[in-house]
Amino acid sequence: MTNRIEHPIRIGIVGYGNLGKGVETGLTLHPDMELIGVFTRRNPEDVPSKSPVYRMTDLEQMKDRIDVLVLCGGSATDIPEQAPELQKDFTTVNAYDNHAEIPAHFDIINEVALQNNNVGVIATGWDPGLFSLNRLVAEAVLPKGDTYTFWGSGVSQGHSDAIRRIEGVKLGTQYTIPNETLIEDIKEGKEVAYTKTSSHKRVCYVVAETDADQAAIVESIKTMKDYFVGYETEVHFIDEDEYEKNHTGMPHGGRVIRRGYTDEETMAVYEFGLELGSNPQFTAAVSIAYARAAHRLYQEGNYGAKTVFDIAPAYLSPKTGAELRKELL
Amino acid sequence: MTNRIEHPIRIGIVGYGNLGKGVETGLTLHPDMELIGVFTRRNPEDVPSKSPVYRMTDLEQMKDRIDVLVLCGGSATDIPEQAPELQKDFTTVNAYDNHAEIPAHFDIINEVALQNNNVGVIATGWDPGLFSLNRLVAEAVLPKGDTYTFWGSGVSQGHSDAIRRIEGVKLGTQYTIPNETLIEDIKEGKEVAYTKTSSHKRVCYVVAETDADQAAIVESIKTMKDYFVGYETEVHFIDEDEYEKNHTGMPHGGRVIRRGYTDEETMAVYEFGLELGSNPQFTAAVSIAYARAAHRLYQEGNYGAKTVFDIAPAYLSPKTGAELRKELL
Ligand SMILES: NC(=O)c1ccc[n+]([C@@H]2O[C@H](COP(=O)([O-])OP(=O)(O)OC[C@H]3O[C@@H](n4cnc5c(N)ncnc54)[C@H](OP(=O)(O)O)[C@@H]3O)[C@@H](O)[C@H]2O)c1
Ligand SMILES: NC(=O)c1ccc[n+]([C@@H]2O[C@H](COP(=O)([O-])OP(=O)(O)OC[C@H]3O[C@@H](n4cnc5c(N)ncnc54)[C@H](OP(=O)(O)O)[C@@H]3O)[C@@H](O)[C@H]2O)c1
């Protein structure tokens, strides 16, 4: 592998939501990469970007000017539709996060990528992504043990959307908060009952409509199946000013902890954690590093679908092997 | 890459100190690996292992019965002498931790490995090793930022040896303790003055000889250049019972923290941490996972020296790619 890039890696961004914006911003931090343009399903004039914005239909004729497309559509419907189609002509990276569907998505992208001699790196980001990588390393090194994933403190987009759909709710944000007592108990070697609902609590900040029934809103939130039932849930009513000031960001993060044993009784705690001021910007940051890797795999003719599991760490860095050994080993 | 191993990977352990014992113990946790024997420079009868123990000179005739040698000698002199020699006939893994000499060691092993069509994975363990891996990933994902490494709380073998050489010291253990205030400041985005000496303090537990001059011992410790000068250093005198009860273990650990920015002002904190009941056992655990990777690289004909930077995470796990995607992504 030659680590040194001769000319900047030319990137196209597909979809300009939070993640797309994050990739645009993030690329400015990587001198070995260059943004060719943003591609959108909307009218380019309606997309508030300072970069060149093109229609999706322009992509085909720009094929030779782009090394890697970073797919920034939503995981619910955009990625399943767009990724297999774009994979025909491009090396791609996505942050697809529908965990249950990842194996099938891998197979689809793998087939198209192998047929067309390109590379598709799927499910980058932090979870899936860096969290997955750490779950793997932790388990491989400490086969005897248990892995725990905690999310937060951070904003859950899905849960925030859900509370905003309740009658009488004008604005709302939901924070997922990990159970710190449980985390301490794990690290201290205590026996723990880790369940989906015991491991996190849910804290909601709601701006109610003027005449709304606040008790009814609380009731609607706490009884919402799949989202809140079973969780310790707090609801705080605040005014619009406070909401705009304190609850419009997208912070997130979390921890992967493996408590393992290196012999019958000797404990080893492996922990990976992130505290992110901006979830989409960090997800973008990871996707950008994997875009660099995708381009190198492509240059080596190592085609097909890949995940964070399949990519040697050195491919993520612009530094040469010798530089990495000298500076970081 | 086929992830599934047909027959157990056959391991030889070279050198039976703390690390060698750790590999012997650790291998019992890996059903896809098998210990062929321990190889020592001492008289095999003097080596307190329940596994088959052989002389180093027996290695050559056992070549075909061993897939990977895990080299467990000391970094100061054993590895530089033994590794290039053994690399001629074997795929090897080591935990060489002389950071300044790693680039040269890589080049030596690389040359021998390429000449003899085998694989040499160097500098595994936790630092170098998993810490290095995280320094690389953190920097590649967050190019704008700073990386900080903290060690401890844990026993430093080198510093403990140094205090034990002081006149009047019967027994002694030195703990390296990270500066938690500095760590908090880093995570909170404050400006910090991180230097080698401000980032850790050193706490010594000493059993003095009966008539020893304790003040002189303290003085000798605190004025020891390279080891203690400049550090906040505490010396506690204890009796032999307490020493045997509380200070003969080899716990260690530490953290790699990168404080990065995903745009002009938005912070992202990336943290990797280990809390190890046994430093050598965990170092062994990492070496074992990389021994699995080394064997697979060998099977693929991907010869030469490798570091943790060059090895895709999937190679560390006994699971297939499909299993990993389904269970851990
Ligand atoms: N792996 C991880 O760790 C991780 C972490 C966070 C998020 N993610 C994934 O990243 C995906 C994208 O997240 P996101 O926050 O960027 O989603 P988003 O803001 O909803 O954007 C998704 C798409 O919607 C369209 N869009 C955006 N703003 C629009 C507007 N004002 N009007 C009409 N259409 C608009 C854009 O496509 P067009 O430009 O084509 O219209 C955009 O690509 C999520 O679905 C999630 O699955 C993964
Ligand atoms: N990368 C990392 O994160 C990391 C972490 C910790 C340690 N390490 C490295 O691991 C290396 C090995 O550490 P270690 O704690 O295993 O060192 P150790 O206990 O001093 O053993 C080193 C060698 O000394 C010989 N030996 C051991 N006990 C002996 C005894 N009672 N009498 C005579 N010889 C004896 C053994 O070789 P024979 O059997 O051939 O005599 C053994 O291989 C260290 O030098 C360090 O560099 C790396």
Automatic annotation (TrEMBL), chains A, B:
Substrate binds at W151, T176, R202, H252, N279. It is an enzyme of class 1 (oxidoreductase). Keywords: Amino-acid biosynthesis, Diaminopimelate biosynthesis, Lysine biosynthesis, NADP, Nucleotide-binding, Oxidoreductase. InterPro entries: Diaminopimelate_DH_Ddh (IPR010190), Meso-DAP_DH_C (IPR032094), NAD(P)-bd_dom_sf (IPR036291). NADP(+) binds at residues 16-19, 40-42, 72-75, 124-128. SUPFAM superfamilies: Glyceraldehyde-3-phosphate dehydrogenase-like, C-terminal domain, NAD(P)-binding Rossmann-fold domains. GO terms for molecular function: diaminopimelate dehydrogenase activity; nucleotide binding. Its EC number is 1.4.1.16. One of its GO terms (biological process) is lysine biosynthetic process via diaminopimelate. Residues 125-278 form the Meso-diaminopimelate D-dehydrogenase C-terminal domain. Coiled coil: none annotated. It catalyses: meso-2,6-diaminopimelate + NADP(+) + H2O = (S)-2-amino-6-oxoheptanedioate + NH4(+) + NADPH + H(+). Pathway: Amino-acid biosynthesis; L-lysine biosynthesis via DAP pathway; DL-2,6-diaminopimelate from (S)-tetrahydrodipicolinate: step 1/1. Belongs to the diaminopimelate dehydrogenase family. Homodimer. This is Meso-diaminopimelate D-dehydrogenase.
